[in-house]
Structures are given as C-alpha cells and as structure tokens.
C-alpha cells in the first residue's frame, strides 16, 4: 500500500533483492503467459530454459525474447544502475541459442506502464506522466458473474457491491491490481487516462516501426 507507483514499487523489489541475491537463477520459459495475466492471460510456447549466476541478466534476456526492451522494465533498469547485475543485452555473454533464434515475435504484451517514457522526458515531468500511465481497474458489467472475488480480495475496500452491480471506488483504489488478477471471467479491464493511452499507442507504433528494419 505504500508503493503505489510502479517505478517506486520496483525500487522496493530491488531493495529486497539486493539483501540476498541468489547464487544461481533458473527460469523455466518453456511455456510463458501472454496478455492480461494471470487470470486473463494465455499460455504461449517459448521453448527455452534460462540460467545464470546473474539474475538481472536472466530477466533482461527473458524480456528481450518476448520483445521488451529490458531497460524499459523498472526492476531491470534499477538493478542494473545499482550494479546488482547486467541489464544491457549488449553486455551479456550468451551461451547456447542466440536470442534472434528464439525470439517470440507475436507475443502479446500486457497493459502495463511504459518504462521508456521515464527515461526520455525531463525529471520534473515524471510524476505527471506516471499519473497518466497509472492503470485503473474497470468492471465490464456484461462479463461480471458476481462471484465477489474482487470484493473479497481488495485490501482497501475499493471494489464494492451495489445491488447486483460491482463497481470500483477510484478514491479508494491503490492500483494494486489484485481484483484484475483474481477475476477468472475477464470482467475487469485495466484502463489508463486518455493521455496515457496516447502514450501507449505512440510507444506501440515506434516498437512496430523499429521491428520492420530489423
């Protein structure tokens, strides 16, 4: 509840990681999940197993395989900058299959905040941009089965039942996405403010344009 913004939450995770980094990290990426996971995601075959004494490098390579820029992911970027591992693909020595041979080109990304924006804009605009990118859950009424799992799991009581309708009280929502994670009916959609959606569309456009020249 204390770390509502994704970049600050990621720093907290890296703080925990820095206390006791593992000696060996093994990632099972034979089957991954794409889309709006975990409850609304879909299995996607990747077909690789990653292992390294550098946990940050494992994350970086895994994200590159599913077509993320590793340095646009807050945890990888923060850990790399703090010297806890290597997040830049160019500096990682890879044994076995080359990334280009296992890259999943049609991997569907989730509706997450865009890390590249923080690195491309002046620091005094970070707070404003982060606010625009913050995801807010919205109930899709025609999909809602009134199972009440979102109401039960919400730590702040923001998910409410009013008669036969469930709704999200935005004044109480802390954007933890627990409701979205437990909804097995895909009745909760994560939405951004209009400006945030524009940022996402621009980011996706440049990502696709860049891939054409690879």
From TrEMBL:
Keywords: 4Fe-4S, Iron, Iron-sulfur, Metal-binding. The keyword Iron applies. Transmembrane segments: none annotated. Residues 135-164, 166-193 form the 4Fe-4S ferredoxin-type domain. GO terms for molecular function: 4 iron, 4 sulfur cluster binding; metal ion binding. InterPro entries: 4Fe4S_Fe-S-bd, 4Fe4S_Fe_S_CS, DUF362, Fe-S_Ferredoxin. Coiled coil: none annotated. The keyword Lipid metabolism does not apply. This is 4Fe-4S ferredoxin-type domain-containing protein. It comes from marine sediment metagenome. The lineage of its organism: unclassified sequences, metagenomes, ecological metagenomes.
């Amino acid at each position: 509840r204390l770390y509502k913004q994704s970049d600050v939450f990621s720093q907290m995770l890296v703080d925990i990681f820095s206390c006791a980094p593992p000696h060996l990290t093994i990632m099972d990426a034979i089957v991954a999940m794409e889309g709006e996971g975990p409850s609304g995601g879909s299995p996607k075959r990747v077909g690789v197993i990653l292992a390294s004494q550098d946990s940050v490098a494992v994350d970086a390579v895994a994200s590159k395989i599913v077509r993320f820029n590793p340095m646009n992911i807050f945890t990888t970027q923060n850990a790399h900058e703090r010297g806890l591992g290597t997040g830049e693909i160019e500096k990682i020595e890879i044994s076995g299959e080359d990334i280009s041979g296992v890259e999943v080109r049609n991997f569907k990304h989730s509706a997450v905040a865009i890390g590249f924006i923080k690195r491309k804009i002046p620091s005094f605009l970070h707070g404003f941009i982060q606010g625009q990118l913050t995801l807010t859950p919205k109930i899709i009424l025609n999909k809602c089965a009134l199972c009440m799992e979102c109401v039960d799991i919400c730590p702040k009581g923001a998910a409410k039942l009013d008669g036969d309708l469930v709704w999200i009280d935005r004044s109480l929502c802390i954007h933890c996405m627990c409701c979205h994670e437990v909804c097995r009916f895909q009745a909760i959609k994560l939405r951004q403010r209009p400006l945030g959606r524009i940022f996402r569309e621009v980011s996706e456009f440049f990502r696709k344009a860049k891939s054409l020249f690879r």
